[in-house]
TrEMBL record:
Its main location: other. Coiled coil: none annotated. It is found in: Cell projection, Cilium. The gene is ift80. This is Intraflagellar transport 80 homolog (Chlamydomonas). It comes from Dicentrarchus labrax (European seabass). Gene3D superfamilies: 1.25.40.470, YVTN repeat-like/Quinoprotein amine dehydrogenase. Residues 297-458, 479-609 form the IFT80 second beta-propeller domain. WD repeats lie at residues 99-131, 181-213. One of its GO terms (biological process) is cilium assembly. It comes from the Eukaryota. The lineage of its organism: Eukaryota, Metazoa, Chordata, Craniata, Vertebrata. InterPro entries: Beta-prop_IFT80_2nd, TPR_IFT80_172_dom, WD40/YVTN_repeat-like_dom_sf, WD40_repeat_dom_sf, WD40_rpt. Residues 637-783 form the IFT80/172/WDR35 TPR domain. PANTHER family: INTRAFLAGELLAR TRANSPORT PROTEIN 80 HOMOLOG, OUTER SEGMENT 5. GO terms for cellular component: centrosome; cilium; intraciliary transport particle B.
Length: 798
């Protein structure tokens, strides 16, 4: 929706615009005037007439907030001009300071995010960094061609600038690596770099606009338009961007496809600026006008409801089941909204409205403190608001539950990929170190467990070494930490079983537990080439766009119980029905909603049985689960049931499920577990089944079953550990030596291990004695188990 305020306009080309508040804008023109536009009263007034020798090119207001906190400094802006100077001016238009900066025009001037530095780019090919007061700090770059546009990186440690047809990312540290690449077939005229999504925009004389990631990889390229791209700008939240050229204004999604195209009669659009709340856009036009645009017609869907933002303060709710329509009116303009779990949460500039989908007439309303809401996330029991100042968890009754805080928190740059919410947990990717995920209790706002964050470490297989002081302990001497791109928390089940899925920079998908009492968390890879993901709203089923197909992990947690089962629990939809890499918007019930590369929505349905199976498993209805699998006759369901039963130590069901998918060695091992003489032995072998060898050994040692612990290590050919335990507990040294000799004889080898040679000299190996000793150990264990069960039954009778 585009509007012009016809009260007054410039007489010459408008070169730059900048917002002071969400409803007040300054514009500069070659007619030497600075005008102030008030959108509430639709009035335009003259701020100041500049001296005749100042022809303005770029304007940028000093940042109002620092890390979400308001700065109390007087409002100033930087104005660059054709005479090689930049000017620091007050809100009243008084020029406080003019600085000789470049030979020829100063083509761009930008404050960094915290206002501690100013960067200017000139026609002379130089890029300079200045202090807040206008003192030269350094000349960052010098080249033979003009620098038309410049932008700060999200962390204010890197600079993006144009160099002819190329783009350059230069870190401020002198020794750091510079990234440079050919971006366009014509001169690059404009760039922008968003602090929330870390994506780069560029537009050039080849009439194309492009989206890049911060490594210089092309994510989207437009087709060639009619005219060169003269301006472009990211919306503050990084979800959309605008592009301006001759008589053309375009609104695009962050992935590149176009939402809307307007053809205002404005001449070239030389500068674009978004208001801080991201609802309004202003453009500086070649014919002396300033064009204003407002984002409307946004849509939200959940089950049978479709909600549309029809005007800036009005929403329409449509129930597609009966075509009932409700109209929601708001006092202020709508900034953000979210619809999920039967609730619509709407943030306006001053208030938050919470609607229940059963009653659209009486919303719960509470005032917002300060700052513009940039993100709303919902879980079943509560929702999370993110504004410039912090994160706040509210109940759907409007009660503030918690407000997590952490050192160096920059709430203003958090996005939906870097924050996840469930009923009991909040996960945040740390922007200062993207390998780290911070975990908080959603109900208290405090860090989970011992307060240590989760670090995504990649262990290289086969790069193991033994600790010489303790030969049994293995450690990895090569660890690689990788940046996390996206995080997601599962939505159902108890809090102590909460899982987090994460996609790293290599596009590998990992799963780990959120609560891992003091132990190093086990992070398991469950997929590769995953571009986006989403958990189901009611069951712990995960879907993802993997390479060029839709993959659904029916029971991802099976990776912790039996990782070989994982490939058998997948449901894969061929990607031929999708266009270029689609993005998952939601996974509700059995419906996955995806946004394609061209902006169209596609829906994919997932069979309902896995969700039912999760429900039966949670409520321990194993007979119903078996009936469901027999009815569905689906191998992937049987595989899920096998994993669920083993996780819950339901051996009979697990045995039947494994038999149904032809896993006979596992069926035999389950029978072996059932035959164990004591509960402790059974538990230890169940842990062994899941690959938790150290835990299994610890369980046996704790129960005083020394022989069983030694035998477990013998079975795994962990000879040194077996000998270490035997020597330490002064028992079964001969057993270890006997099995070792048998093992070496089988392969026709001689003993070379010094420790075994040493003990073999002093210990006699007699298989009859060893067998008798083992039999005695087992009968002792059976006897003890029987006594324990008798004691417990007597106690229960009492």
């Amino acid at each position: 929706m585009i509007t012009f305020l016809n009260s007054r306009s410039h007489k010459e080309l408008v070169s730059c615009v900048g917002w002071t508040t969400a409803d007040e804008l300054y514009s500069c023109s070659e007619d030497h005037q600075i005008l102030k536009w008030n959108l509430l009263t639709s009035e335009t007034s003259l701020v100041v007439r500049l001296p005749e020798d100042i022809y303005p090119i770029d304007l940028h207001w000093f940042p109002k907030t620092l890390g979400g906190k308001k700065q109390n400094q007087t409002e100033i802006f930087v104005l660059t001009s054709t005479d090689g100077k930049f000017h620091l001016a007050s809100k009243m238009g008084r020029i406080e300071k003019s600085v000789e900066a470049h030979k020829g025009a100063v083509l761009a001037g930008r404050w960094n995010y915290d206002g501690t530095a100013l960067i200017t780019a000139g026609e002379d090919g130089q890029i300079k960094i200045w202090s807040k007061s206008g003192m030269l700090r350094s000349t960052l770059a010098s080249q033979g061609s003009p620098v038309y546009s410049v932008a700060w990186g999200p962390d204010s440690h890197r600079i993006l600038y144009t160099s002819g047809r190329q783009l350059v990312i230069k870190p401020l540290q002198p020794s750091a690596k510079v990234i440079q690449w050919k971006a366009h077939d014509g001169v690059v005229l404009k760039v922008d770099w968003n602090s929330v999504n870390d994506l780069i925009l560029s537009g050039g004389e080849d009439c194309k606009y492009k989206v890049w990631d911060s490594f210089g990889r092309l994510l989207y390229s437009s087709s060639s338009n009619d005219y060169p791209v003269t301006s472009l700008s990211w919306a503050p939240d990084g979800e959309v961007f605008s592009v301006g050229s001759f008589n053309t204004l375009r609104l695009c999604d962050k992935t590149g496809w176009s939402y809307a195209l307007e053809k205002p009669n404005t001449g070239s659009v030389f500068s674009l600026a978004w208001s801080a709340d991201g609802t309004q856009l202003a453009g500086a036009c070649g014919n002396g006008h300033v064009v204003f645009a407002h984002v409307v017609e946004q849509h939200w869907e959940w089950k049978n409801f479709v909600i549309t933002l029809t005007k800036r303060r009005t929403m329409q709710v449509r129930n597609v089941m009966n075509d009932a329509v409700d109209v929601l009116e708001f006092r202020d303009r709508v900034i953000k909204a979210s619809l999920a779990y039967g609730h619509l949460v709407v943030a306006t500039s001053l208030q938050c409205y919470v609607y229940n989908s059963r009653n659209w007439n009486t919303p719960l309303i509470f005032d917002l403190k300060e700052g513009t809401v940039s993100l709303i996330l919902q879980a079943e029991k509560h929702f999370l608001l993110v504004d410039g100042a912090g994160l706040y968890t509210f109940s759907y009754e409007g009660r503030l539950i918690s407000s997590p805080k952490f050192p160096g928190m920059r709430a203003d740059i958090l996005n939906a990929q870097g924050v996840a919410l469930s009923n009991d947990t909040i996960a945040i990717r740390d922007k200062s170190d993207e390998k780290v995920i911070l975990l908080f209790d959603a109900l208290t706002g405090k860090a989970l467990g011992d307060g240590k964050p989760l670090t995504h470490k990649l262990f290289r297989h086969g790069e193991m070494a033994r600790d010489h002081k303790s030969p049994s302990k293995c450690f990895f001497f090569k660890q690689k930490k990788l940046e996390v791109v996206e995080v997601a928390l599962d939505q159902s089940g108890p809090s102590n079983e909460r899982k987090i899925a994460l996609i790293d920079k290599n596009r590998d998908l990992y799963l780990t537990s959120v609560r891992h009492l003091g132990r190093e968390p086990k992070i398991c890879k469950i997929g590769s080439m995953v571009h986006s993901m989403s958990w189901n709203d009611a069951a712990n089923i995960l879907c993802g766009v993997q390479d060029n197909q839709l993959t659904v992990w029916y029971y991802p947690s099976t990776v912790f119980t039996d990782k070989d089962l994982l490939p058998k629990t997948l449901y894969i939809r061929d990607g031929s029905e999708f266009s270029r890499t689609p993005h998952i918007l939601s996974y509700v019930g059995t419906k996955v909603t995806l946004r394609q590369g061209d902006g169209s929505l596609v829906y994919s349905s997932v069979p309902p049985y896995p969700a039912l199976l999760h429900e039966y498993s949670t409520s321990a209805r194993w007979e119903d689960a078996l009936r469901l699998c027999r009815f569905a006759k689906d191998q992937s369901l049987w595989a899920c049931l096998a994993g669920m039963a083993m996780a819950n130590r339901e051996l009979t069901t697990a045995e039947m499920a494994y038999a149904a998918i032809g896993e006979l060695p596992r069926v035999q091992y389950i029978n072996f577990i059932k035959e164990q003489p004591s509960k402790e032995s059974s538990l230890a072998h169940m842990l062994m089944f899941s690959g938790q060898v150290q835990e299994a050994e610890a369980t046996l040692l704790q129960a005083g079953l020394i022989y069983q612990a030694i035998q477990v290590n013998i079975d795994l050919f962990s000879w040194e550990r077996a000998l270490e335990l035997a020597v330490k507990h002064k028992t079964h040294v001969d057993t270890v030596l006997a099995y070792r000799q048998k093992f070496l004889q089988k392969f026709g080898r001689k003993e070379t291990n010094k420790r075994f040679v040493q003990y073999a000299e002093g210990v006699e190996v007699d298989w009859e004695k060893i067998q008798a000793k083992i039999e005695m150990e087992l009968s002792k264990e059976r006897e003890r188990a029987a006594n324990t069960s008798v004691r417990s039954s007597v106690a229960s009778r009492r």
